[in-house]
Amino acid sequence: MRVIFAVMVCFSAISFLTPPVFAQKQGQALIDSLLKELPAKKEDTAKVKLLEKLSYEYTNVNPDEGIKYGKQALALAEQKKWEKGIAYANNSIGSNYDAKSDFPQAMDYYLKALTINEKRNDSGAIAVNSLNIGIIYYRQNDFNKALDYYLKALPLNNNLTHRKELELKLLNEKKQHKNEEDTTFIKTQKKAAEALIESKKGLAANLVDIGIVYSSLKEYSKAMEYYKQALVIDYEVDNKDGKGEIYANIGTDYFTQNNYPEALQYSFRSLRLYQELGNKDGIAVELDAIGEAYLAIAKEDSAVPAEKAVNLNKAVEYLEQGSVISKEIGNLEHQIEFSRDISDAYFLAGNCDAALRSLKVYTTLKDSVFSDQNKVKLAGLEKQRETELAARLARLETLRKRNETLVIFGGFFVLITIIGIVIWNNRKVTAEKQRSDELLLNILPAKVAEELKATGKSEARYFDPVTVIFTDFVDFTIHAEKMSPAELIAELHMCFKAFDDISGKYGIEKIKTAGDAYMAVSGLPVASSAHAVNMVNAALEIRDFMLARKEKMGERAFEIRLGIHSGSVVAGIVGVKKFAYDIWGDTVNTAARMEQNSVAGRINISQTTYDLVHDFFNCSYRGEIEAKNKGNMKMYFVDSKK
């Protein structure tokens, strides 16, 4: 969950637009007040201001409405030939397109606003436009372009701050000539002081944005320079939120460089500030960052057993604290990440039971993207399968006991009859056993099922090497909301059945599905030297199946991303009721990271897997990409067979 706190907010010049009567209102209440005011406005610049203000306020509520009012403001400003209004309307429209992630449209309007403001020499507005354009480039990972615009805004924000300082200084010098009870002057002085503080906060935010870009470019020393400059300003104006974000970002930079002691130092500083502010979301994020750092220290090869145990205990302690807070604030995304991290920590500590409990929590939370109706249907299907298996096994046992009774107590004169009954029963038993075996093989690999039937148990085993795949549907929750429960279950069944067929074709063992995720492994329980090649072949067929379905069904079809990694795992049966065959280990976690860092319609593989398959497939190198708890990892997209 370790994140970069970016002080990147698309904004208009609020001071230009906000009427005093609405100063204390926010969100929908402010929008409602503005809408009531609108009919009484004449077709003049005051109405442009009101329309533009509506456009801005709708940015985080309903961007489509924001665009509508922004275009009305733009049309009226153009009719009145009012350049300032035209520029501000363009900026607000751009902000709404930005909120919709329509970056080309947002960029078009931001550039129009910038051109007009440069012509007007409005340095404050130019700074706003430049930062907004920089944000667009940053979100598209064009860090150099983003840096250009952030650096362009910096001297403008510097000059704006200096002007505000000068204005306040002049007012303070006039104070000695003013009556102490001159309320108008006092209000003016107070507003000037507040404007200076906001200007300094904006300057600090600009510096932080530059630092973030340098962090993304892995130029950490330059990033630190700008973070420290921003810290000086935030300390001056006592901006605890700003300080907390900067400390968090510095901690993330040190974590990325594997300097965990320094990462901990800054994460603790950030945590204390968020605790002072009562910012539970920030507290949860930093508790996870601290837990991840202790976990990373424990994973280092140099960690001696005693130190490793101490660090693992600390990791669990902070992760558990963060998990409690994430539940309090109802942040499901945080809860999912915490449960996965806690499972990793317990697994590394050798506490498999606790690791499994946390893993089950993770699975349960991830499955919660389904509606309640879908959960009931899925639970019903599982219960039906379990009940059917139990009933057939019970009938099998009853028939076996009946045969034994007949053999023991039967007599010579009924021998022929008994033989006939036995033959008939054996045939029935064989049929029942075959059906039971089929059910068992739907749950367990064949080799494991045979061991379970022969001994009543199955020992966990270590397998090396194997190849693990994770698949996940992109924006699954959004798709699920648009489908009825019956349609959703039918579509999942269709896709997963196809995946099962493809896996069977290549001797791949399906492990489980969790919500919209599908997990399988190649190379166990029967070892195979072609485990990686078989898995990539299967992944290509799964990808092509989903692409064909997309072409046939259009927007109604799911899009899939796939991730693959090769290494060692531990495999075995979990539980005694509703038992399931599962796999554990760092290979599983890394495969999941490959999936998380993939994109729609692509197969993302690790360096380890690439080394095993590059002679058979055309692959594209993606570079080193940061993976959660793994640092930077080399990744490749599989394009096609050679």
Would you write up a description of this structure?
The protein is an alpha+beta fold and 642 residues long. Among the domains are: 117 residues, Serine Threonine Protein Phosphatase 5, Tetratricopeptide repeat; 72 residues; 184 residues, Nucleotide cyclase, GGDEF domain (Alpha-Beta Plaits, 2-Layer Sandwich). It contains 24 helices and eight strands. Strands 1, 2, 3, 4, 5, 6, 7 and 8 form an eight-stranded mixed sheet that branches. Strand 2 and strand 3 form a beta hairpin. The longest helix has 38 residues. The radius of gyration is 32 Å and the shape is globular.
Keywords:
Alpha-Beta Plaits; 24 helices; alpha+beta; Serine Threonine Protein Phosphatase 5, Tetratricopeptide repeat; globular; eight-stranded mixed sheet; 642 residues
The gross shape turns out to be globular
> What name goes with the CATH superfamily of one domain?
Nucleotide cyclase, GGDEF domain
Q: Which architecture of one domain does the CATH hierarchy give at level 2? A: 2-Layer Sandwich
Distance between the termini: 38 Å
Mean pLDDT: 80
* Strand coverage percent: 5-15%
CA-based gyration radius: 32 Å
Number of helices: 24
How many extended strands?
8
